[in-house]
Records
---
Amino acid sequence: MKLIISIMLLIASTSFAQKNEVVAQVGKKTITLEEFNKKFNEVKAQSVNPPTKELFLEDLIRYEVGLQEAEKRGFAKDPIVLERLNQEMYKALLERELGPRIQKIQVNDKEMQAWYAKNPELRTSHILIEFKPGATPQQIAEAKKRAEEIWSEVKSSKRPFEELVKLYSDDALSKQAGGDIGWQSRVTLVPNYYETVQSMKVGDVRGLIETQFGFHIVKLTGRRSFENANKRQIRAAVFDEKRRQIFNEYFAKLKKSYTIKENASAIR
């Protein structure tokens, strides 16, 4: 019996010694065989073409050399490094606190249909009177004046909308297609553009809609049924709404633990 116990102790001792066998000493950092195997197996499980153990050990050594050199140079106090650390801590909090709840989110057809009833896919054609990014107030005013003149022409003209597009639109991409920008959704359109066309009837023409691209005169040419809609995009949108609700509830509760003062007028 004593012999068996001695053998078992010897095996355990040998296993412990192997795990703690040093594979590399880098300055003040000791890399044990157990640590090496753990990290190597993680990389191997996530890679189609994992490195050899020798190459991976070299990577670990370089990492430690680089880390210690960064510490020596005081990077731990660098504002950029601290900001990245803050971002990583924020991400870690969300992953730990909200990750499990987000992974349990499910989306069914009834929810998708309810969302789509309020957010249908629409097809529009437009005349764009553009102003460039960073345009001055004067340039924007000039573009608006031109847009108003064109809008007056469109309202009184008996020409097909497609012809007016070719005469006036600055959107070279859609101009040759009569202004058609294809089927779009709330996810893919600028919010005020989408809100305007959503309230229109097929065949209606409306202006002016201002976006970051310029002033639009828009014709609604189609409203797609749920059966023909992009189900993947709808599912993703419903998922995002549920995820947003989880975030909102979490931070609404968390914010109660902190004194918060806002001065919203300063950013207007």
---
Amino acid sequence: MVKSLTDCTTLHNGVEMPWFGLGVFKVEEGQEVVDSVKAAIKAGYRSIDTAAIYGNEEGVGQAIKESGVAREDLFITTKVWNADQGYESTLQAFETSLQKLGLEYLDLYLVHWPVKGKYKETWKALEKLYKDGRVRAIGVSNFQVHHLEDVLEDAEVKPMVNQVEYHPRLTQTELQVFCKEQGIQLEAWSPLMQGELLDNATLQEIGEKYNKSVAQVILRWDLQNEVVTIPKSIKEHRIVENATIFDFELAQEDMDKINALNEDRRVGPDPDNFDF
């Protein structure tokens, strides 16, 4: 049972990754991202998830510097964008991200999307960065089972994390089973389905039972399903509220009710059919 904001899952290489963090997708570079990351760190968050394509790595880096929290106490993730995939270009993209963040090393570096014909070369670059000690853990994002099988065929280092769209309308059961078997930690992006689930009657009812918001119920459900979660918010009160999920536990019947909301429905792109 995850009991606090600092509780971690241990990745298959022994690195500890917080179960809960802040995502900064669509958070504006500059004051907005600086304020939101600082508010999260102040509230006790230790994990921050960004990506090259978000265009806000510099602001995240500034917030880390201004937070007053020691670098080694934080867990920082970023991702290589599709246009930079391939071996040499990924190594370059990594240096650029590190520079923007103003960091000496990364905690987690992810392949953002499974770009056909490129992601295996990209993975080789991540293996090199990992072996060189530039990053503590490496993983992928938006990979389906067949993409993972493809990478595993000749990977020297198995991905430690797979970050995917995951929420009560998209429970990714088959993918989660596969990742568990392989020792790959599943992580949720868009855990609140970009707000679409906040007026769901079933979730509201469960929230009333525990005296919690729908968002808190969903984020607790993530953790009880052993999925790392990184909800995004730019409002300090919401950042604090999202993290107030360690003082209750959902009963199995409520977990089942939430699992039953699955419709295999995405709000984001389909990893088998995207063109960017």
---
Amino acid sequence: MTAVRLVNSNSSCSGRVEIFHNGNWGTVCDDSWDWNGAQVVCQQLGCGRALSALGSAHFGQGSGPIWLDDLQCSGTESSLTDCTHRGLGTHNCRHSEDAGVVCDDMTTVRLVNSNSSCSGRVEIFLNGNWGTVCDDVWDVNDAQVVCQQLGCGKALSAPRRAHFGQGSGPIWLDDLQCSGTESSLTHCTHRGLGTHNCVHSEDDGVICEGLQ
């Protein structure tokens, strides 16, 4: 199986796609790059489901060889080299066309604007941006997912109405309905990434029992 890695991001489950061949790490061209190709990468890295397949060197331009071009994957292959492509090293691309992916299993979450890393306004990192979560139907089950992911123990409360101040940037999630056992907020039922009817005065927060 061809080794793959994601680089130039603050998460091991998002970044520029690079594969190892003939002793060199090289990139993948974004011609025909789509969710199915991204899914192969996310699966191979144990990062769950692909959220997006990004082109135009979204995570910066790589260097070295461009190993794959015109990839056509079904999404079930065990490695990108098992997909249809032009041949290893055969391409008509530049590094400004380097492909990237964002997978959801490692959705990075943080709690901000508090004096404890186990309480604060909830923010998640997607598509290169930190954004907030809307408090519509936000409850302690949703908060529990965040506390669990951060190793902060049990959720004590799920403050609403920008209790920890208003955020900025995208509002990534709305109408979250979690059971409390999910490994990431993106695994809960929601309206769709970036789909909401909220303003930042509705940013939600959590207070977990951990005092890290």
